[in-house]
Amino acid sequence: MRASILDLRYRTRELMEALRRNEEVILTHRHQEYGRIVPVTHLAQRNRTTWHPFFRMLVRGAASDPDCGPSSVPGDPTPRIPLKLPATRPPYAAAADRQTPERTRRSTDVDGADQPDGVLFATDVLLWCQRGSVGAATAIDERAHRAISIISWMELMQGVQSRYHRRFVAGFIRMFHVSVLPIHDRIGFRAAVYAEEYDMNPTDAMVAATAVERGIPLVTCDQHRFNRIGDLDWIFVAP
What we know:
- This protein is an alpha/beta fold.
- It is built from 12 helices and 8 strands.
- The strands form 2 sheets. The protein has a 5-stranded parallel β-sheet with strand order 6-5-4-7-8. A 3-stranded mixed β-sheet has the order 1-2-3.
- A hairpin with a 2-residue loop joins β2 and β3 (32-37).
- Mean pLDDT is 77; it is low at 62-111.
């Protein structure tokens, strides 16, 4: 859709409708193109995991610039991109606000988790991405509806090496619209059964139980940790 500078004021509703239809709005002035307004969904599709400072974060080390990604190493084509992160609430805060005393919200209440192509990424996929695995990064890029468990979020936060790393992890979650799924009582009960029956690590059991209760497949880089759970639909990604 093409629009003039005056249309920003007088045709705001039409411009918003075009963005909702995932259309780009081309701004013109005196028949010259001055800029483009791109929908958020387009940004998520055009960005690549390998472009973000989150990729190879554990290899490069802490950044010296609080507003940019880690410095590139020799032979590394990944560019430095600016990270101006707004001071917003954590991505799981909105889901926590929707919790009610009577019941806990299910997957249909979390953006993207109930989509047909929605998946839950295990923590190891994100860790391999931080180590520079192209296979893990490609697996993240190929999915339009991404989700992680709140357990994985906490594990990522536990592994940060500096406050700059913390910003990169939070920025990655926001930029790629990764839903952070909270835990409810059924997930806890199922995780306890998995931990006892399969002698699993409690965090792995919690992640697996989240995928089963949400009804979405689990993407992992370790096929030996979850292959014993019969009711779990899991996808192996070679790192």
